[in-house]
Amino acid sequence: MPTPRVTPLPREEWDAEVTELLDATQMGGQVLNIFKTLARHPKLLKRWLVFGNHVLFKSTIGARERELLILRTGWNCRAEYEWGQHVVIGKQVGLSDDEIRRITAGPDAPGWDAFDVTLLRAADELHRQQRIADATWAALAARYDTQQMLDVVFTVGQYTLVSMALNSLGVPLDDGIPGFP
What is the dihedral angle through the alpha carbons of 106, 68, 65, 146, rounded to the nearest 10 degrees? Predict the structure, then answer.
């Protein structure tokens, strides 16, 4: 989308509430465009940050596994902003360039271990059918406890929601963030 439908809120328009919210979201001294855009609805941003922070920072699943789910969801939803941000995060938690490239091909791409296939398949099933199939559920449940199973579903759900917002609002990529390959 060449022009944002909802532009990020410029710093000179931040009131005290928005300043407090956005200062808390800084990454490397920068406030991301997603947060500056959602700051146009501070009450929504405040409440969404609680859930988003759980999924991103307090999830019971490992960071690498979480990023596989998020990147596949961003790819499935064609959310370039989400994809680009999580390519950077994925590399920080150990995903290789080859793995990131293979995420675009999905669970049937050669080179994945069996559990990575299961995670990617779960993301695809949630995207397509809004439900994890019985066989995929059983494969996840062989390794994950109930809280982890919930975190899988809510990770894909959270990033589907975020992708819908990013795509609909036209949130521009942040400086230095890659787009789709």
Answer: -80
